[in-house]
Each structure stands twice: as structure tokens, then as C-alpha cells.
Amino acid sequence: MFDFGCGLGAELAPSQTDPDVMNYAWRDYGNRVGAWRLIDLFDRLGLRATALLNAAVLERCPGLAEACRDRGDEIAAHGGTNAAAQGDMSARGEARMIHDVTERLASLGARPTGWLGPWISESRRTPDLLAEAGYRYMLDWAHDDQPTRLATRHGDILSVPYSQEINDLPAIIQRKQEAEPFAGMIGSAVAQLLSECDRRPLVLGIALHPTSWDRRIACRRSPAS
């Protein structure tokens, strides 16, 4: 979820206007169309997902948040919007934002226990603030193939890696990779970790964003994906 005409925003193409109608519309397409295609895909495959929700989704796309809840997805907090990086906030502002996001997402029926910072952005105090707010895990640190514990002033918080390689947005938009090789990357990663998982517990997160178009969905439906 991004703000129109201000703040940060993922770009399909370099911005040439202010407000940036083209890139905003591409991002909004994900909320209006792409997310529902992903939900349909997960339903067809019988999979539950972790839905990383900005709290603003509750006001702007409430039906989408409710659909994720109703199908039994894990609801993890993803800040207020993706238009601001929490690493740039003051200590008081960051604590207030975490509290506000937590309370708003709790209205779906359960308090979120996982957090991914917008833009993978943290301050030095973020793990302490999340543990204080009752969060059990965070996804910002893609530094291992297994969950690790981070020490905070309020006890340990679990770091669950959110992959930057097995992640469609940087792979296809930033690295200009086609959908089929991306699906191949998923298959290769699964094979590698399966060969190691009898020796230690491992996690493979597959990050899919709703700014999808038909050929990517078709690729996701293939056996390789």
C-alpha cells in the first residue's frame, strides 16, 4: 500500500511526472486485481500464506484484508504503508507507529506476532521495540537459511529470513529477470535445501507481490513453480 503523490514507492519505470500516476496505478493494480489472483492461486493449490499487510489496507482495501484472514493466512504486520521507511523515524514516532499498526491489524481478530519493515528498513532500536510490543518474529534479516534468535532488551526475538533472491519484485523488476527463470530459481532452491534439511532445520520463504500480470501467474501455476 502506497500513498498517492508523496513518499516512497516501488517503480515499474522511472518516474517522469508528479504525481507519478503510472507507477502508482501499477502498484494499485496489485490491490485491485493481482492480490485476488494470488488468493485464487493459493486456493487452487490448497496453500496458506503469510500475508504481509500494511495497516492502511484496512481502510483502503478492507475486503482484501478480510479475505486473507478468512482463508486462514498468517497476518504479519508490514508497517502503516510502504510510503515511509521506519528507519528514518524518531524513537517516539517509530514506537507510536508500531503500536498503531499492531492495534489496527488486531481488529482482524488476532494481534500480529510477525513484522516486516517497509523497505526492509530498521533503526537500531527496532528489535527492542518489536519485542516490547509482543512480536515473536521479524523478517528483515535475510542472513541465514534457518531461523535465528536476536537478543533484545525484552528477551529474544526470532529472525525468520525473508529472501531477497527468491523474491519476484527485485528479480523481475530490478534485475529484469523473466518469469520462467525465476520459477527455475525456486525449484533449484527447494532442491538444495531439501538435500540439507535432514541435518538442520531450514526455511525457504518465497516472496510474491500482487503487482502481477498474466504470464507470471501462468508461470506460478506450472509444476516448476
Automatic annotation (TrEMBL):
It holds the Pfam family Polysacc_deac_1. It comes from the Bacteria. GO terms for biological process: carbohydrate metabolic process. Residues 28-137 form the NodB homology domain. Gene3D superfamilies: Glycoside hydrolase/deacetylase. One of its GO terms (molecular function) is hydrolase activity, acting on carbon-nitrogen (but not peptide) bonds. Is involved in generating a small heat-stable compound (Nod), an acylated oligomer of N-acetylglucosamine, that stimulates mitosis in various plant protoplasts. Belongs to the polysaccharide deacetylase family. This is Chitooligosaccharide deacetylase. It comes from Sphingomonas endophytica. The lineage of its organism: Bacteria, Pseudomonadati, Pseudomonadota, Alphaproteobacteria, Sphingomonadales.
